[in-house]
C-alpha cells in the first residue's frame, strides 16, 4: 500500500504541476495581450522581473498562445527619477522602437512624479504625456528638448503593451493621477489578482 500511495501522490503532484504551468501560461497571455493601458499595483522590480521570466519561457510554453510573446522586450521608466525633458525624451525613444515583436512599456511609480522646480517639469504636463495619452488612437507629440528644433513625432498606443504601476505604499495618492474616464484596464494589486486567477483555474481539471 505505501508504494501505491506514493505512486498516486507522484501522479497527483505531476498533474498539479502541469495545471499550474498551464494556468501560469494562460495568466501571462491574458496580461500581455491587452490592447489598453493597464493599471497595476505592484512592487516594480518584482513585476518587471516576473514579465521577463514569463517571456523567457514563452518559446517552449505548453499553451500555444503564450508562444507569441517570445522575444518581446520590456522598456521601463521610473517616474520618481524624472527630470526636465525626460518624459518627452523617453517617448521620443519609444516612437523609434521596432514594433515587432510588440514592445512592452512599464511606466513605474505614476503616483510619485516630482513637483515642478528648476530641474523638474510641471507634473500635470508629465501626467498628460505618460499617463493619460494612451487612451488616444494616436498621439502627435512635439520634442521640445533643447537642440531638437521642436520636431514632431507620433505614437500609436495600440503598437505597445503599456502598464502603469504604483506601489501599495502610495495607493492613497492614486486619485490625483488616475482618471477612470481614460478607459484603461484595471488589475489593482498584482499579487492578489494573480493568485485569484490561478486559484480559479486550479479548480478545473487538466482537460478544462
Low-confidence stretches are none
Q: Which strand order do you get reading across the main beta sheet? A: 2-3-6-1-7
Query: What value does the average pLDDT take?
Result: 91
What is the overall number of helices? 5
Task: Give the fraction of residues assigned to helices.
Answer: 25-40%
Order of helices and strands: HEHEHEHEEEEH
| Rg, nearest Å | 20 Å
Largest sheet: 5 strands, parallel
Question: Secondary-structure map with pairings?
Answer:
Elements: H1 2-32, E1 38-41, H2 44-56, E2 74-78, H3 86-95, E3 104-108, H4 123-132, E4 139-143, E5 151-155, E6 161-166, E7 185-189, H5 190-202
Parallel strand pairs: 1-6, 1-7, 2-3, 3-6
Antiparallel strand pairs: 4-5
Helix pairs in contact: 1-5
Describe this structure in words.
- By secondary structure, this protein is α/β, with parallel strands linked by helices.
- Helix content is 37%, strand content 17%.
- It contains five helices and seven strands; from the N terminus they run αβαβαβαββββα.
- It has helices at 2-32, 44-56, 86-95, 123-132, 190-202; strands at 38-41, 74-78, 104-108, 139-143, 151-155, 161-166, 185-189.
- The strands form two sheets. Strands 2-3-6-1-7 form a five-stranded parallel beta sheet. Strands 4-5 form a two-stranded antiparallel ribbon.
- Strand 4 (139-143) and strand 5 form a beta hairpin.
- Helix 1 (2-32) packs across helix 5.
- It is globular and about 70 Å long.
Keywords:
37% helix, 17% strand, 208 residues, five-stranded parallel β-sheet, single chain, globular, alpha/beta, two-stranded antiparallel ribbon
Amino acid at each position: 500500500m505505501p508504494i501505491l500511495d506514493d505512486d498516486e501522490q507522484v501522479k497527483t503532484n505531476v498533474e498539479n504541476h502541469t495545471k499550474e504551468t498551464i494556468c501560469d501560461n494562460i495568466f501571462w497571455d491574458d496580461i500581455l495581450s491587452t490592447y489598453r493601458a493597464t493599471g497595476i499595483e505592484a512592487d516594480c522590480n518584482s513585476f518587471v522581473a516576473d514579465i521577463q521570466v514569463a517571456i523567457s519561457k514563452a518559446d517552449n510554453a505548453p499553451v500555444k498562445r503564450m508562444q507569441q510573446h517570445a522575444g518581446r522586450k520590456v522598456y521601463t521608466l521610473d517616474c520618481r527619477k524624472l527630470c526636465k525633458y525626460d518624459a518627452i525624451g523617453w517617448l521620443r525613444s519609444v516612437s523609434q522602437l521596432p514594433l515587432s515583436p510588440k514592445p512592452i512599456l512599464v511606466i513605474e511609480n505614476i503616483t510619485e512624479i516630482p513637483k515642478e522646480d528648476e530641474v523638474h517639469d510641471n507634473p500635470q504636463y508629465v501626467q498628460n504625456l505618460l499617463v493619460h495619452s494612451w487612451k488616444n488612437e494616436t498621439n502627435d507629440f512635439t520634442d521640445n528638448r533643447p537642440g531638437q528644433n521642436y520636431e514632431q513625432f507620433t505614437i500609436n498606443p495600440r503598437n505597445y503593451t503599456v502598464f502603469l504601476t504604483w506601489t501599495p505604499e502610495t495607493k492613497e495618492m492614486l486619485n490625483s493621477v488616475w482618471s477612470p474616464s481614460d478607459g484603461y484596464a484595471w488589475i489593482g494589486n498584482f499579487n492578489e489578482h494573480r493568485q485569484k486567477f490561478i486559484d480559479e483555474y486550479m479548480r478545473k481539471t487538466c482537460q478544462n
